[in-house]
Amino acid sequence: MKTLPVLLLTVSLGLTACTTGPLTPVPTNVTILGLNDFHGNLAPTSFTTAEGAKISAGGIEAIAAEVNAARKANPNTVLVGGGDLIGASPINSGLLRDEPAVYALNGMGMKVSALGNHEFDQGLDELFRMQNGGCASNDPSKACKYDTTYTGATFKWIGANVAYNATSGKTGTPFAPYIIQDVNGLKIAFVGAVTKSTPGIVSPDGVKMLNFTDEAAAVNKYIPEIKAKKPDAIIMLIHEGGELAEGSTDKYNTVGCKTLSIKSAIVDIAKRVDPAVSAIISGHSHQGYNCLVPDPTGKDRIVIQGDFYGHLLQRLDLVVDKANHRVMQVQAANLVVNYDARKADGTLDPNMTSILTKTNEKVAAIKNVEIAKLGDPQIQRGISNARNTESALGDVIADALVYTTQAQGSQIGLMNPGGIRADLPDATAIKAGNAVNFGDVFAVHPFGNTTTVLTLTGQQIKDLLEQQWSGANASAVKLLQVSADFSYKYTLSNPDGQRVNIADITFKGAPISATATYRVATNNFLAAGGDNFTVFKNATNVVQLPGLSDTDVLSTYLKAFGPNLKNVVQNRIIKL
Fold it and tell me: Which residues form the Calcineurin-like phosphoesterase domain (predicted)?
């Protein structure tokens, strides 16, 4: 198989805190493969390589092929996860409650994964079901439709910073903080954490019984306990990530990058995590990077993330001294999971092909229903799927919210960029006549959110816009996508609370009034204060539309206007 070049970041390590004595070294090679932000993407999706080539990447058939090849080269290979393995998934997994994704990961031999925020999308009880099996789901229409006796994940989700709170009536942690995996006689410890921002980015009711504490402090709490068990290596799995600093030219294959933004949560965490942790596998921010961040002693430590949807696998190659329980060397690389190359040379995994075929058959009747034809082959959700810019698809969805809620008096539509999960359609799914089907719409809106219309004052709208860059959103900007007739300007360099002048917020060409009221259409997640937009919780005249799902909203709009829609950003949001 023709493969893309792999660049390795190598860090040589001295004796770690795991060392027990100066015995004759017994070096052994261990390979750790990490998969983050998979989101149930059973099939490959479009990906642009660092060299600019446009390929199909990811998909369970090709991911498994990469794992198979690594195990063949080194039997001491273990597959782990960086969180968000399920949730926000395409129709062939999402419509079946992500059970096919779990079975695929089981079949690949995954051993352990950090919890991700999307694992909590359907609440703690449903996550327990995904872990342990059974059919007692909060959505019987989806559960156990792939397998009538869903048996659960054979790998374990872990999270050191997730604990029951006082309201739960329980004590302790719902998930193990760490797992020590036996890899052919070697003891490799994996300690996990999930972003402490989880309560603000999932439906609050589903996690109201849990506390999500500081990630580094929680991991450090368990390091002495782990070290007492004399592991040969300690690796951290965390569902929290970073963004490359503005102006950085580093890419996923840049070796030893030093340009992770200092505003990135993962940088602060990595600087505080105990030096006994040899490397950090991260996730959440959907950026591929292979970077170095100093540990508390000032020594560089690898922090790596592998993009999303299985396009990249994070690879750590460790040289472990089994006699002295220490890591002598770590090499790091992001591997492109090139579906096209695997298909061409016949190395796609046949067991995964069987899973994909079965799940596609289960959803075909719904997935293939044509919704509309577009004016362009696709409408995109932004360059590199960035959440800090206006996108063509964001404009369309915000317009759709207003269009479908005219009976409720809607004037302004607001959409969170994180709720837009795919281009319409993905580049690998463009069809004759620019047609889009329900599967394409579902890929954009996999959460099953419903629609809410509410009233905000002009001042509340101004305060809401300020929350795009402040508080928990300061390190991961979430630029709300806005509808036609609504526009504003902002100055990013201004202090919190002063980035938007109310005189620069217009509706139908005129500045809004601080005291006037406006009807706003959005989804139930944002209306409940999701993504840290707490101003929504102070709205009045709230009308819930449980029968109007996000897929209904977009489908209705596409049917009405599809041929006129093009991949054009409307410039409703202006950065000064």
Answer: 31-287
